[in-house]
Amino acid sequence: MSLWLVLAFPAACVAAGVRVEDMSGQALVLDAPAQRIVSLAPSLTELAYAAGAGERLVGAVAYSDYPAPARRLPAVGNANRIDLEAVLALQPDVVLAWGSGNPPAQLARFRQLGIPVFIAEPHSLDDIALLLERIGVLAGTRARADQAAREFRARRDALRARYSDRPVVRVFYEVWHRPLMTVNGDHTISAVIRLCGGRNLFADLPQLSGQVALEAVLAADPDAIVAGGMDATRPEWLDHWQRWPRLRAVRNAHIFHIPPDLIHRHSPRILDGAERMCELLEQVRQSQ
Fold first, then answer.
1. Which of 99, 210, 277, 279 could form a disulfide with 121 if both were Cys (CB 3.0 to 4.6 A apart)?
2. Core vs surface per residue 128-163: b (16+ CB within 10 A) or e
């Protein structure tokens, strides 16, 4: 990843201007901190609020439901299909986009129309702290954003100190059941597993998130199976693993659920999911 830069324009240019490099390596230049921001991912909506920029948000995609004020934002489609006209009507100073989740053609169209696009594509927990800081620069809320980033790093470091050197727990993280999907070692979910002293059994998967054969999971014989699902309720399909009673995770009742909003979203709440993950993996260790 290229170095993140935050530079102020010389006073001879525009004293209040900002320049920020996003996670694609693209430099964004604004004449002044953004006053009108549109978020194209629920996680980015959460990050904006955490960075003190919630009052600058004028629109967001579906499922931007945290914190509570986000539910009142005008909708601009969903992460996979953005309503271009709705975004344009909001006259944003900048659009916060999810690099691997939003349609590239639509992001290119925003740029063609002169709307700056800030690309976020976090692959580590530190990237989340960096995003807080960068959004704070974009929105002119650096003091609040920098404090949020410091608190995030301190909480992450406390979890790392407590759990990362504990005996390794071999984990299969199930994103979805049909088709059977998981994540590789570059995904933030893998970062959470490592933070808790676990090992993602499919870290070598070529894609960030992709299909895996049932036979491969059975052969790997994980110590624990952890899944997110669609909402805060435990997905019924986790019970399908009971068909393989010899599987170590089934035999020892180590099949767990973490609400997806706490682990699938690249926001400060991922540490809530990490705390849950660490507690679950500790249960596995205590039973061995």
1. 99
2. bbbbbbbbbbbbbbbebbbebbeebbebbeebbeeb
Query: Cα dist. 266→22, 50, 98, 188, 211 in Å?
Result: 15, 12, 10, 8, 21
**Interatomic CA distance for residues 118 and 96, integer angstroms:** 5
Determine contact, residues 39/64, Cβ cutoff 8 Å.
yes
- Structure pTM? 0.90
Nearest Cα residue to 269 out of 241, 235, 234, 228? 228
Count of domains for the chain: 2
Q: How far apart are CA 216 and CA 168, in angstroms?
A: 20
Whether residue 225 is predicted with pLDDT greater than 60 in this model: the reply is yes
Boundary-marking domain end, from 132, 155, 178: 155
CB 151 within 8 A of CB 270: no
Residue range 129-182, pLDDT digits in tens: 999 999 999 999 999 999 999 999 999 999 999 999 999 999 999 999 999 999
Could you say which of 155, 174, 204 is where a domain stops? 155
Structure tokens given for 132: 């807080």
Contact 37, 20 (CB under 8 A): no
In this structure, the answer to whether residues 100 and 214 fall within a common structural domain is no
Entry field: residues in the chain? 288
